[in-house]
């Protein structure tokens, strides 16, 4: 293929698909993504992480399958995007599978998983995951604390968990962050 400066690239296709998404044009997003494949331009991890933000408007299963086929399922960007999609849909089993397959987990992916546990009221699962995160040397940020505190505000949560978390929040200097301070209230 003779490629002049006007030839579409993975970057231009991803930008176009992202533009459609931002403007609520789900049908055009899907059409653009399919045309990209037809033009023999392979989506990259940015393409997949962009298009996955369309869920649940566009079903994530087809994009998930294509991400696996393209070898991006375990990439941090695509893995986190998939994880967030399945958490939004409250499909925690699928989210946990994605999380376990991810090559690298950052604070965003850990926080997303903690949010999922909070959404389903699994304070024990959230506490275990939070401990694993800190044992692996990752530093929680205000969103991580907010997520785990929300999980620990469920009626089944142990009060002692909340007290320990509050101490850690204060020690980490996140007690003045709005999302953390609002999550601290229901723990008590």
What best-fitting shape do the alpha-carbon axes yield? elongated
By oligomeric state, this entry counts as single chain
Number of helices: 11
Order of helices and strands: HHHHHHHHHHH
Q: What are the low-pLDDT stretches, counting only 5+ consecutive residues below 50?
A: none
Largest beta-sheet details? none
By DSSP, the count of extended strands is: 0
Mean pLDDT across residues? 83
How far apart are the first and last residues' alpha carbons, in Å? 65 Å
Share of β-strand residues: under 5%
The chain-level structural class is: mainly alpha
Q: Which percent bin holds the helix content?
A: 55-70%
Task: Describe what is shown at a glance.
The protein is an all-alpha fold and 188 residues long. It is built from eleven helices and no strands.
Set out the fold topology.
Blueprint: H1 10-22, H2 26-38, H3 45-51, H4 60-70, H5 76-88, H6 92-101, H7 107-119, H8 123-135, H9 142-151, H10 159-171, H11 178-187
Helix pairs in contact: 1-2, 1-3, 3-5, 5-6, 5-7, 6-7, 7-8, 7-9, 8-9, 9-11
How would you characterize this protein structure?
By secondary structure, the chain is mainly α. The protein contains eleven helices and no strands. The protein has helices at residues 10-22, 26-38, 45-51, 60-70, 76-88, 92-101, 107-119, 123-135, 142-151, 159-171, 178-187. The protein is elongated, with a radius of gyration of 19 Å. It starts with 9 loop residues before the first helix and ends with a helix. The model has no long low-confidence stretch (mean pLDDT 83).
